[in-house]
Amino acid sequence: MALNTAAVQEHFKIFGKLIFIHNLVTTHQAAWEKAVAGLYDQGMDAVAADYDLARLVFNPFASQVHSVINGISNAPNTVKNAVTLYLKNEVAEGVDLTSSATPADIIDGLIDEMNTNGDTVGASGTYSDGFAAYFNAQYSKTLPQSGSPNVPNSYIDDDVV
Q1: Structural domain includes residue 39
Q2: Which end of the chain is more exposed for a tag (fewer CB within 10 A), N or C?
Q3: pLDDT digits (tens, 9 = 90+) for 101-134
Q4: Number of domains observed in the structure of the chain
Q5: 13 within some domain
Q6: 24-81 pLDDT per residue, tens
Q7: Domain residues for 131?
Q8: 136 occurs within a structural domain
Q9: Is residue 58 part of a domain?
Q10: How many CB atoms within 10 Å of residue 152?
């Protein structure tokens, strides 16, 4: 079974949603941590003489937000796991592999199909958070690239495309 351009584009629309989440989390993680630390520090400074306020408000807050920040910190790995599962469960068959194939082999098959079709993604130098950059950083794979791609990085979005 071969992937035509429309099938390649559909796969990258899914990758785009996952990469959007990855980029969103990695872009804002430090800001979350700083904001929470600032709020906690400010609150603790203001209530230094009020043990009950610290015990009833700021300590529970810090504990709950710690869970959120841990989730945010783990999100890039969660996204990569989702991309890997998508490769294995959706893309592999289209490139004549089984779900037991390695992500590297599946991506190589996807690249072969893209080359056969003339499909390209935006050049990574132009789109530092795009498909080319993500697959290179996460899987050490170089996708076919062009200044005028038919698999645009605009698929990396939270809207349905």
Answers
A1: no
A2: N
A3: 999 999 999 999 999 999 999 987 666 789 999 9
A4: 1
A5: yes
A6: 888 888 888 888 778 777 766 665 667 777 778 777 887 888 888 888 889 999 999 9
A7: 5-26+73-155
A8: yes
A9: no
A10: 18
